[in-house]
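Quarterly update from the structural biology core.
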Amino acid sequence: MKLQGPLASQIASGKIGNALTFVPNKRGTYGKKYSKPANPRTPKQLTIRALMTFVATEWRNLAPLEKREWTTLGLFNHIAPYHAFVKYNQDAWKNFLSPSKKPKPHRAQLPPSDFDFSANGRVGQVMIRFQETLGPPLWGFYCHRMQTWPFTPGHDNVVFFTNLPTPNRYDYFDGPLEPGRYYYRLARFNADGAFNLHPNGRSALVT
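Predicted structure, tokenized:
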């Protein structure tokens, strides 16, 4: 970024190489030592981003009657129904509970299912493919990723959430990734927050 304004002025902005950067605040502009921004692709950041994208998209897909259920919760918390839906699912995920279309889900365990699931390594990425024959009332899937095995699926190692694909097959390209071996666990869940993990993990070698 090019500097704008004289170096000694109160309106200087930008940075000098990787040594000094100018930051504005309410008192003016000050210079500070430049530091490289934190990695925006940490597992936790990727999980939060994936969850937010999923719930924002799915809110638009909810039926009017389903949206109405969030009105009461929104009024109680003095927020819009949409924000009630997002906040509820964010808070639930912090406790490793699957997303739900309902404010008071039953969260019963889904029956085990060995659905079709594969992970194929490529240059700089992994293609994850799965196919589900059960169909509704399933709502969606989420996928955990780690570079160690065995690993415990958690609320901070998910690379994507997706709704039930049509026609029940989904391809996801995970990347960019550094060369190495990656391990995946896939879970499915319904609109009532019930979920189950695929009984087996998959691994893929990225070149």
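The two ends are 34 Å apart (CA to CA).
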